[in-house]
Amino acid sequence: MSLIVVGTVAFDSIATPSGKADRVVGGAASYIALAASHFVKEQELISVIGEDFPNSFLTMLESRGVGQTGLKCIQGEKSFFWEGSYHDDLIGRDTLVTELNVLKGWEPEVPEKARGAQFVMLGNLDPTVQLSVLNQLERHPELVVLDTMNFWMDIALDSLLKVIARVDVLMINDDEARQLSSESSLLLAAAAIHKMGPRTVVIKKGEHGAMLFEDGNCFYSPAYPLDKVVDPTGAGDTFAGGFIGHLASLGSTSWEAKKQAIVVGSILASFTCEAFGTERIASLKKTEWQQRTKYLRELVRVNPVTTDEG
Amino acid sequence: MSLIVVGTVAFDSIATPSGKADRVVGGAASYIALAASHFVKEQELISVIGEDFPNSFLTMLESRGVGQTGLKCIQGEKSFFWEGSYHDDLIGRDTLVTELNVLKGWEPEVPEKARGAQFVMLGNLDPTVQLSVLNQLERHPELVVLDTMNFWMDIALDSLLKVIARVDVLMINDDEARQLSSESSLLLAAAAIHKMGPRTVVIKKGEHGAMLFEDGNCFYSPAYPLDKVVDPTGAGDTFAGGFIGHLASLGSTSWEAKKQAIVVGSILASFTCEAFGTERIASLKKTEWQQRTKYLRELVRVNPVTTDEG
């Protein structure tokens, strides 16, 4: 088992300027696992659900190689539920309802067979759960990627810093990078975050693309330009799943592989933005994402600047 | 005379989180002309100043090939003055003082020798002044580039739309593109603006780079990542000057040349952001901007994505 994915598997009710979706399957780990399944044949999901969770989704995950030994189902309880409403800019959003349900007091268990995993994706979640997963591993994996958000910086910074110190890649958005580092320049923010532990920093900028920082090098990928964003929920998780899925499939953590993984993550995230829920990323075809990958290459292609004057 | 530049030549008092600058030389045309002077040996400046304007700046412009037959100096009057204060994000800003002074009632005069110019840069200014300049030209130039801002959309939309209908390239920022087109997607905004006249649309996104749209093609350049932005005043004008200066020096309006011109504009603008006023863009060396151009190429360089799975 080379890849394990930790995160929520849940229900979301979402309102955006494009419409509404009521109690669709969501959660960070759902998006991550589906995105990664386009690259790896096997992975292990560590999460928790209630008895209200649809079996059809689990069957679909299983058919895509997502192992569920580490997925705990608690009878008599309900799955995690989030309801939110996006502002017109599709960036700001208001949380209307958060029902933790099965997440309360959940202690993750990494299945025996997955404790030697080489690639570990810690999806956005309580940092104490993320720490518990790391503590159950046999040795430090080839690559541990951590995704988190400002919510945990606000209420659990100490635990979060402990996880950050133990991961190879920290993945956050630009505002969060500024909050965590107290730096306004993203270059300086990345430098400050390196000092907290992670050799590699990924800063997600939504429609403005993503940046990768490692060993003094910097790579930038634009986002795939969309005519219309229907729902950005899960875009960051999809990005994370594409990123680690690509690296796990190559079995590589090289700079070149990571740059490609940023492109893959960006492209996959663009599909998630085009519809509510996980269906678009689940139904995605290889030819579709490859076509967008080619488009993104062309988007930044330019001959070296030559001048007559100067 | 292959390039003419129209815009303000003025004084600015600016406060940013980094400090203050009191009555430094600014104005769209000052930045444009200085940026373009790194590429073309000759250009003609169309603007207006008062008797308070320092001769030293004009002498410096002249030494860089900026002709001033079309620069009117009105005795007994004062130059245009703007005072503003930037918010912490260096995007929002409050205008504290605007003294139009010599701009009131100014009618631009294009010198005889410049009426056949092949490249025309209409810097941000009252659209009736921009129209007057176009009306004085012998024929439609090779390329007319228009820079404008939301202020003119708010108070002079009819005149602005008349100018927009007559130019080849419209250059605005992302918020302005959305305002002008009533589209939230930049792809759709560019498509709507094409229908207003311009074959080519340039959308400036500040620290997030710039996009170029033409004939169904799209090009994207990131901004040069900076450790610190001291003052963004004039960055858009510098971008415009680098863009048209590069094209005028090549004598080309091809898609490839325009893509390079976007890169050149982005790089030059990064220098303007690093200090108050025009001194940084004036003192810039070729080796300095070329080095950043190479960095920007490397920043987006990635091998094609290959996969083992799929």
Explained architecture:
2 copies of one chain form a homodimer. The first copy, chain A, is α/β, with parallel strands linked by helices and 310 residues long. Chain A is 36% helix and 24% strand. Chain A has 11 helices and 14 strands. In chain A, strands 1, 4, 5, 6, 9, 10, 11, 12, 13 and 14 form a 10-stranded mixed beta sheet that branches. A 4-stranded mixed beta sheet of chain A has the order 3-2-7-8. In chain A, helix 1 runs parallel beside helix 8, helix 3 packs parallel to helix 5 and helix 9 crosses helix 11 (286-300). Chain A is globular, with a radius of gyration of 19 Å. The N and C termini of chain A lie far apart (58 Å).
**Strand-and-helix sequence of chain A, N→C?**
EEEHEHEEEEEHEHHEHHEEEHHHH
N- and C-termini, Cα separation of chain A: 58 Å
Low-confidence sequence ranges of chain A: none
- Strand proportion of chain A: 15-25%
Characterize the main sheet of chain A: 10 strands, mixed
Assembly classification: homodimer
- The level of helicity of chain A is 25-40%
Number of helices in the DSSP assignment of chain A: 11
Largest interface: A-B, 51 and 51 residues
Class inferred from helices and paired strands of chain A: alpha/beta
**Arithmetic mean of pLDDT of chain A:** 96
Annotation, overall tally of beta strands of chain A = 14
Shape of chain A: globular
**Rounded to an integer, what's the Rg of chain A over CA atoms?**
19 Å
